């Protein structure tokens, strides 16, 4: 299984969206070089308020570009970086990957999938009503989160648009993604 990186984004300051870049550098154990969420311990404000010593399982945020098309037909214009992701992909059902999946990005970089992004109210501040489109319930009443996945960097390297994404599934039994 493989896909493609369509955009990369980072921001040095706390803001909801992240500007697209020509490339980003992933640093093993830290995240995206120069990104406000890079670090060994949590950097997301709500997580820091709970316990600033927690490990950072949210170093790199990935979203599948297909989500933008899904919400576009519902009247929401969303582009790469708009939802705060670092890496936008195409051709991979990121939400279906199990915990521990390795994503090889480009020639060198590798990230390990840790879980689902937990969408927050900032999404509605960005586009009113969008939160309902990226988090909802399935027929059985289970919460479905579609705002991307989180990962940690296991091998650093440069990543840019057009880079191939190769998937290595962990040994079975696979654990489904949960929010992190």
TrEMBL record:
Secretion signal span: none
Coiled-coil annotated residue ranges, if any: none
The organism's place on the tree of life at top rank: Bacteria
Positions of the MOSC domain: 18-168
InterPro entries, per database record: MoCF_Sase_C, MOSC_domain, Pyrv_Knase-like_insert_dom_sf
Name of this chain's protein: MOSC domain-containing protein
Source organism per UniProt: Streptomyces drozdowiczii
